Amino acid sequence: MKGLVVVSAFLLPRDTGYDVAVLYQIEPGWHIYWENSGDTGLATTVSSRYLTKLDYPAPQSIRSAGGMVSFGYKRETVLFAKLQKEVLQIETNWLACRPDGCVPGYAKVPLKAPSKTMYKRLLTQQSQIPNSTLPKALLLRAIKGNTWTAHFSRSSTLEIFPSEELQLALQSQEIRQHETFSEVVLVGKKQLPAQSYAVFRLTEGTGNTSVYQIQLQ
Amino acid sequence: MFLSLFITQLAFAADTGKPAPGFSLPDLNGKTVSLKQYLGKTVVLEWFNPGCPFVKYVHKDGEMKGIANKWKNKNVVWLAINSSAAGKQGHGVETNKKAKDKWKLPYPVLIDAAGKVGQAYSARTTPHMYVIDSKGILVYQGALDNAPRGNPKGGKKIAYVEDALADVVAGKKVRTSETKAYGCSVKY
Predict the structure, then answer these.
(1) What is the pLDDT of residue A186?
(2) In angstroms, rounded to a whole number, what is the distance separating the alpha carbons of residues A185 and B134?
(3) Which of B172, B148, B159 lies closest to B42 in space, CA to CA?
(4) Of the candidates B134, B76, B79, B68, which has an alpha carbon nearest to the alpha carbon of residue B112?
(5) What is the mean pLDDT of each run of 10 residues along chain A (217 residues)?
(6) Do A174 and B188 touch (CB under 8 A)?
(7) Peptide bond connecting B152 to the previous residue in cis, omega within 30 degrees of 0
(8) Which of B3, B12, B178 lies at the smallest CB-CB distance from A178?
(9) Partner-chain residue, chosen from A42, A101, A164, that has the shortest CB–CB distance to B148
(10) Is A66 on the interface with B (CB under 8 A)?
(11) Strands (DSSP E) found in chain A
């Protein structure tokens, strides 16, 4: 089973805003999961006594038989962690799945300094961490009763990844393409938790993508 | 000014607080088991797949070991349902018989190879758990606990299913009625 997911951890220079980058290299055909694993699966986690923050890059949707949608990563992903204190190693748990089965994984990973090439690769991955400032393309967001509405400029293709709390509260989720804007409508079974959030991936006509974490209110 | 492009995604689910979808399924000996025969009792449904590591964990070392016997004298019936389709992981009477023997499961494993009951309940994972009260109302759906493979989220363990059972047996409103299930996907 070893080798299905290979994990390495790198100590980053301070100016990246993070202390540690955890790289997961995933066997083709398999995937691991985002912080909200979606309909199935289990979140990938990093732990250390001194961990203060863990950021996940925006995931992709992974569909399985029966209409279930999970959120996760294929091939390669990097989680970014902030620590209170320097450590020598981190621990991580993940669940690797493919359509015919799952294999849980755990590793203690010693930290090492990244090579120049690796450092560049990690910085590229860092751009997939959702930005918490509101995107310019967001024209409106409003919460009314059980419904959350947001309008984005029309040029973008939208993908939505609800947080676990939000997913649990959702009754339905729609993206409506109007002539001049795209409308996202999230309807809750009851009042939507205003403090919950979703991650959005916006792809412009040029193919440029950016990811945002947007709180309902 | 409405363009025809219209993408809808709906999260289908059995509704908590509403009557639980009825079913009749064969057990491993071919005997039919119906939900309605348990009216008057509390019923726990456990989505099952002996090949899934989460199912293995809870039955071998974990939280599901002996749990059905613990609640038996409180008028609680336990039923495992396997919705693995033919040719997929966990399918087949023999495979399930072996698992039932190995883990000494004192309750039936029902075979839902067409996945109809799984879809009616919107069962997504193994183990996805459901609690139905004595009037046939679905009162809990989601995870067994907050501790996948023994690791509690946030450090403190919450046993959602047993909490729900304690509340139902005491005639109280279930404190947490929906959580997000974790585990392998149901192999529809």
Answers:
(1) 95
(2) 37
(3) B172
(4) B79
(5) 85 86 97 96 94 96 91 97 92 95 95 95 91 91 94 87 93 89 92 92 87 93
(6) no
(7) no
(8) B3
(9) A42
(10) yes
(11) 5-11, 20-26, 31-38, 45-47, 51-55, 60-64, 68-74, 76-83, 89-98, 101-112, 138-144, 147-153, 157-162, 170-178, 181-188, 197-203, 209-215
The closest alpha carbon to A197, from A60, A20, A35, A27, belongs to: A35
pLDDT computed for residue B4 by the predictor: 42
Tell me the residue length of chain A.
217
Please tell me the distance from the alpha carbon of residue A163 to that of residue A175, in angstroms, as a whole number.
17
The phi, psi pair for A35, rounded to 5°, reads -65, -30
The length of chain B in residues reads 188
Name the residue among A35, A44, A47, A43 with its Cα closest to residue A90: A47
pLDDT at B6: 47
For the segment B69-87, the average pLDDT, to the nearest whole number, is 96
Write the single-letter amino acid at B51: G
Could you give the angle at the alpha carbon of B175 between the alpha carbons of B174 and B181, nearest 5°? 90
CB contact under 8 A, B186 and A68: yes
The ipTM value here is 0.84
For residue A137, which amino acid is it? Answer: A
Identify the closest residue of chain A to B155 by CA–CA distance. A47
* Rounded Cα gap, residues A44 and A102, in angstroms: 13
Cβ-nearest to B2 among A65, A173, A178: A178
| Cα dist from B105 to B40, B50, B78, B102, B114, whole Å | 23, 12, 10, 8, 23
